[in-house]
Amino acid sequence: MLDFAVYSITIIAVWSILALSLNIQFGMTGLVNFGQILPFALGAYAAGIAASLGYPWWIGALAGLIAAPLIALLVIMPAQRLAQDYWALITLGAAEIFRLTVLNTPALTGGADGLNVPRIIDPILAMTIAVAVLIVTFLLAQRISSSPYGRMLRVVREDEILASTLGRSPIRYQASVSVIAWMMAAAAGVTYAHITGYVAPSSFTVTETFIIWTAVILGGPGRNMGVIFGAAIIQLLGVSSRFIAQWIDLPPDLIANLRLASFGLVLVLMFLYRPQGLIPEAKQVHDAERD
């Protein structure tokens, strides 16, 4: 039971970081990113490639934290003057391009077999590191949310033209928040790689992006604590459903598909009956002259 609790907290912490990274893009800024799994994969593969080349772990972590924001700028560059629909398609396409690239470059990335990464053997230590990264990420997201910068992100979310009339450049805010969010996700990827001890293309599919989105929509877009709550519910549902296969006579593949179907049902119900999420974003009123 203790092992299950430690494992659950560790996984929840990693996915909560991903949920926070998507929240500051979508919840605060309104950016529809369907490729949020890409910076997560960049961090994980940076850790894997560095390990395969014999470098220490911090080289891989540093490479992931540098590569993710640079790739973010490259990805969003063609989306500068496009509507949000195109932004979603470009990020989705970029994530798939990366997955197919690592799948077809076995000399560097291990291809479909993936890469081994030095694993954190002690589960308690792994949980502590994951929770520590989550706390740092949460404090950063909270700082952004309560700052004038965060308030301007919400203006961009609500009306880009209004932001422009205030003398602000929406694309600059969108680019800067994407850089921060992708660094958060890359940190989650590095942590995930060293917790699992293995990275492979099958861990970074569209399904994982769908799970991140479900956590954000369930918890409450725009509310940092809400998306952590949403990530915890989704991951607990996912982890606990594995025990169902042991209790009933159903194939594991069918259980996995039913798990995804339940996530989809949760998403539909939230959109229909509670689009603001279980913990809605608190509305704030600010005095423009004082702020």
Question: What can be said about this structure in brief?
Answer:
This protein is mainly α and 291 residues long.
3D shape:
globular
Structural class: mainly alpha
Low confidence ranges:
none
> Would you count the extended β strands for me?
2
On the 0-100 scale, what is the average pLDDT? 89
Order of helices and strands: HHHHHEHHHHEHHH
Separation of the first and last Cα atoms: 50 Å
Radius of gyration: 19 Å
Largest sheet: 2 strands, antiparallel
Explain the overall architecture.
The protein is mostly helical and about 290 residues long. Helix content is about 75%, strand content about 0%. The protein is built from 12 helices and 2 strands. It has helices at about 1-25, 35-50, 55-75, 85-105, 105-110, 125-145, 150-160, 160-165, 170-195, 205-220, 225-245, 250-275; strands at about 115, 200. About 45% of the residues are buried.
Indicate the topology.
Blueprint: H1 2-27, H2 37-52, H3 57-76, H4 84-103, H5 106-109, E1 115-116, H6 123-146, H7 148-158, H8 160-165, H9 170-196, E2 198-199, H10 206-219, H11 224-247, H12 252-273
Antiparallel strand pairs: 1-2
Helix pairs in contact: 1-6, 1-9, 1-10, 1-11, 2-3, 2-4, 2-9, 3-9, 6-7, 6-9, 7-9, 10-11, 10-12, 11-12
Features:
291 residues; mainly alpha; 12 helices
